[in-house]
Design a protein that fits this description.
The protein is mainly alpha-helical. It has 15 helices and four strands. The N and C termini lie far apart (71 Å). Residues 301-370 form a coiled coil.
Amino acid sequence: MHSDTIKEFGTDALRFTISLGTAGQDLNLSTERLTANKAFTNKLWNAGKFVLQNLPSQTDVSAWEAVMDYKFDKEESVSRLPLPECWVVSKLHVLIDMVTTSYDKFFFGDVGRETYDFFGSDFADWYIEACKARLYQSRADSTSSVAQAVLLYVFENVLKLLHPFMPFVTEELWQALPERKEALIVSPWPQTSLPQLPNSIKNFENFQDLTRAIRNARAEYSVEPAKHISASIVATPPELMAKAPGQKKSFLSAIEILTILKREEYRQNMLQTDWPSGDANQSVHLVASEGLEAYLPLADMVDISAEVERLSKRLSKMQVEYDGLVARLSSPKFVEKAPEDVVHGVREKAAEAEEKINLTKNRLAFLKSSVLVSQ
């Protein structure tokens, strides 16, 4: 069984799957879990390739010196980092403390889950995407060195945390990193109690919330994935922006937006004025947190007249279905003779239909008002 499983999924994926079990309980070694953790191993490998491909050439001495000059063991040095870097380094330091405590208590399942979540979501899904703007747009100057330094620092520490579970892939990736003079298995454990900046973590989480809200709005309005739209981002707290003297509200710079909004379609249409152009009533207004807002012009996302027509037809159909449900519930014969669970089910459908009708009416009213404003 184990030899076949190892052959299909790999030793590291099998070890990691077993480690995620709760101590004292039987583990359901399912194919789904093994498949997911094999994918996790592949994600780790691909992240390693990304890091290696975006580090300076080993022959570029000055570039390497710039990368190695960055230190992350003092709060002053971490606080000077750009927000995405400050966030991911702070989150890594939180993770190291949690994982070290869990290892000391033999809570191996907690170690695996905490590291899995940080690497898969925070590092791979968010930070790697956020740093691309800095890496790709700044290769010719020194501003990319901070992203390179943080990529290397975070990734090598993730390898250390995962090594007891996944010794083969982590060792191979470690040996591929530049200037590795010793094997990962004998390298020092990450230092604990390193700087963690809660405000930076919270500020970046606000940006994450805004990004999700924009994506949800695109999905709600059925915007094609490849379609470019404008996004006006307003930020007021001083920790989120460079405030111009006397300015009450200011837009984040395009480069700061690009480090958060990962999708390519925002890159060419980012507004940088001090307020949305045109009437705000013609935009979808999103609020991620107090002082962090976005305005998405409706005209960019949807043909308003066509959407009004589509929703009007949909509303008529929904109203017919709702009237039918209400008629059934108004019939004494149905209520008295039908099984109780059937009557209850019809009542639930009617309530759900009524809620959908109200939502559709509200959206129609909003769109119709937008048409009137634009005219």
